[in-house]
Each structure stands twice: as C-alpha cells, then as structure tokens.
Amino acid sequence: MGRYLSVILTFISSALCAMAAEGVDSCVSCRDVGSAYWVKQLIANRFQIHDSTVCYPKFPRFCLSVYNWGDRVFNSYDHEYVVGTGKNWKLQAKSYNWLETSTMVFPKGSPILMHSDLYSDAGFSLSFMAASIGYMWNINSIFSEPTKRRTFNFDFTCSRFSVNYQSVSSEGGMIITRFGDYDDGRHIRYKFSDCSLDSKTLDAYYFFNHRRYSQGAAYSFSKYQLKSAGTALVGVNFTEQKINMDFSSLPDAMLESSPLVSTTYRSHYRSYSAMGGYAYNWVLRPRKWLVNVTAMAAIGYKQLIDNEEVAQTSEAVASMTRLNVSAIYNHRWLFASLTMKGYAFLNFNSDVAHMNSIVSFMATAGVRF
Prior knowledge:
elongated; two-stranded antiparallel sheet
C-alpha cells in the first residue's frame, strides 16, 4: 500500500511541477543545476520573476525578497479600485513637443509677451517593469534650422509617492508677440534670439488616498483604474532658473517703446517650497477610458543670486504652479494617450512681475507584453 501511495504522490508532484514550469526546460532539483540556470529559466518563462520553479541562487533570491517587500509596502492597492495589467513589458512610440512662454508685466507701461517655437522630438522606448531605455530624435532639425536646446525628464511613481525631475535649457528661438506700446500695443511677430533659459525642477509628493488612486494608471500605463478616485497631495519642490535676455539688438522703434528700465533682463534664483494639490482619475469605462487632472501649487523661500554670480544674495517669496492632464485609451494589450504637463513660475519685484512657463505635450501609442 505504501508503494502505491508513493507512486501516486510522485505522479501528482511531477504533474504540478510541469504545470508550474510554464515553458522552462524541465522540472529539476535546484541542487542539480548550475549557478546560471536561473537566467535560462527566466528567459524561457518570459521573465516571470515570481515563478516558484525558478532556481534563484542566494543573492538573486535576496534581491527578489527585497523587491517583494518594497512592492507590498509601496505598490499595494485596493483591488476594487486598482489592479495590475498583468504584463511586465511595454514598447512605446512617442511624440514629445514643448514650448516656453514669457510674460513681463510692469507697474507703469504695457507688457512684453513672447513664446518659443514649438520644439518637437519623436522616438520610442522599451520598458521592463520600472526600467526603461529609449531614444528620441530632434524633428525640428529635419524641417527647419534647429534651435540649441536640451531636455531631460525623470519620473518615478509608486502607489504612495512620486518623484519628478525636469531639466530644460534653450538658446534663442523666441518670438516676441507684444513689446510694450510698440505698434500701439498690437500683436506682432518678431524673432528674438538674444535670450537663454536654463531651468531645473525637482518635485516629490505623497498620495494620501494611495490605496484607491493610481498615478501610474494615468501616466505610466502600469495599472488599470477600475473606479473613479482622487487624492490630496503634499510634497516639496526645488527649482533653479537662469534667464538672460538682451534687447539691445532690437530696432530703435521698438526700444523707444520699451517698458524696461534697461535693455537687458537677467534672473538667477534657487527656490525651496512646500507643495500641495489634488489629483483625480475619472474612469469613463473600466480598462478602456481614463482621464486624469493633477493640479499643484508651491510657495516657499527663494534665494536670488546677483548677475555676477558672486556670493551676495537676497531673499524673496517663491511661487510655482503645476498642472498635468492626461487621457488614456486601453484595448487589450494596446494603449494610447495624450498628455499635457505644465510648470509656471512667478518672479516679481518693484520693477516687473515676470511669469515664465514650460508646457509639454506628448502623444503615446504602445503595446504591453
């Protein structure tokens, strides 16, 4: 009887092992394989890292345990509201477009308004879980004379918090649309190249309703939001900006109408601010249509640095607002989205109130697998 029971248990064990393997070569004892066999197993099962049959050595198993702990603590949700997509890989095609705007308002005199050309990049990215690699091409260089510019964006989002870094720099490429009382204050279009911008912004903020609200569903396509939900946000912001404008090359007729006390305008500051705001996911149809709006404002301490870049500084109040809007469509393994993100910064003194903004638009289409 014991021999028959042993045969039955062996058969059941072999069957269960075969079903769990999901494409791995065979169900073997981890003691009978080489130290690199686990890599072969992951390739065979399409990197299903939680497959219980994978023969992880000691250190990779420790890393997986740390990951699982972090996933439980920082990426858990109420599954009535948020669920995973079931896929670890994403291949995306992207069109990224952005522009700068600048508005200068004076106590006495008409404003100066300008904006940049629309800068366009296009490319692709391949993502596995939180890791991503990709490349973008400068589309402006194909159709027109390129402007010297550079952008870098980094985003990390989990269920509880989000960290975002943006670096933007450009030289020239601005278009003046109003210059004080020039031409009776009417709309104009004058190419202005003697200007530069260097802006760095770092945000970190916490989601209070992190069990029911997913930022990843709206911006990184890593989750499905099943029911509408919102959350209050609180965090911190660091910003450094350098702005230089030299109007001395403008025509004399424009300079005669200038509301500026000088032909040059320079601003360099660092700010440290507290942020607050609200985000909301509207589920128009679960696993199909989702719309998100995220609005934040920051106020804090601003360190003004003089034009000569020396140690003398003064202090002022920092003010910044941020608005993100996205619309996402999902169909099985396919997804597409339109996203707008904008920062607006306000600098003011007794001579001028200067608001400059950086606005980006992104269209994305991709597949999960």
